[in-house]
Amino acid sequence: MDLSAFSLADRTIMITGANTGIGQGIALSVGRAGGRVIGVGRSSMEVTAGLMAEQGADFIAVQADLRSTADAQAMFDAAWHQHGPIDGLVNNAGIIKRVDAVDFTEADWDEVMDVNLKTMFFLCQSIGRRAIEAGRNARVVNIASMLSFQGGIRVASYTASKSGVLGITRLLANEWAAKGINVNAVAPGYIETNNTEALRNDADRSAAILARIPAGRWGIPSDIGDAAVFLLAPASNYMHGAVIPVDGGWLAR
Question: pLDDT class for 185, splitting at 50, 70, 90?
């Protein structure tokens, strides 16, 4: 096996939501594969920066409010000029609102859709434009969800947004595959992150979830990070519009 096919040496990867959870796990996996990471988020990324430094990986922290598509695109353009060109983009930043459907507000709907789907698409557009203009190859990895395939409970806007992430991933793959841009997705199962803390703290829900996972455990961020590295690396050159479930067997049950 040619291990260089899994290397990200000399590649710059932008990861949104890299301050914690899955985004942090992806950043660390990219660093271990030799890539330089531009971590984007609203919150401090000191912890991620420290962990990256411990493994000798390059990390650049960029503060940005991804609720605004204009701000997100301006951030991407500035990062391209200052730190680029950018070889890969991982759209990981996301939020969730847990409310019964009959009580769901328009504000809860819009806030989640703006971050999880609208900004995700326009960041994809940003790297697509830059790569096509420069005649460069590029990689996009969008973070989907089990709820890209299933309905879920009490998370109407999150389910809608993650269903949209999968659709946009396939659309962009159709448009950009022939232009040297690979667009794929990873669909995490139940991972130990801030977003799932409420579920893990609910003894009945947690037990029900674990009972359905053949692997018998919640996933950890590096499980997702290593899958993302594969989609960012040459090993996945012929993959376009694919979604890789990393779910401990959840969808197989």
Answer: very high
Question: Are residues 128 and 181 in contact, defined by beta-carbon separation less than 8 angstroms?
Answer: yes
Q: Is residue 195 exposed (0-12), middle (13-18) or buried (19+ Cβ within 10 Å)?
A: buried
CA distances 157 to 40, 46, 190, 243, 244, Å, are 23, 30, 18, 21, 22
Bridge pairing between strands 138-143 and 181-188: parallel
Q: In the beta sheet, which residues pair with residue 20?
A: none
Distance CA 163, CA 80 (A): 29
Catalytic residue positions, numbered:
158
As a whole number of angstroms, the distance between CA 54 and CA 131 comes to 32
Provide the domain count of the chain.
Answer: 1
| Closest to 253 in 3D by CA, of 219, 208, 221 | 208
Which amino acid type is present at position 202? D
Host domain of residue 190: 3-252
Residue 222, Ramachandran bin (φ over 0: left; ψ between -120 and 50: alpha; else beta): alpha
User: Could you tell me the CA-to-CA distances from 165 to 64, 104, 151, 213 in Å, in that order?
Assistant: 21, 21, 14, 24
The domain that contains 183 carries what CATH number?
3.40.50.720
Residues 6+ away with beta carbon under 8 Å from 48? 18, 19, 20, 23, 24, 27, 28, 39, 59, 61
Interval 6-57: pLDDT, tens:
999 999 999 999 999 999 999 999 999 999 999 999 889 999 999 999 999 9
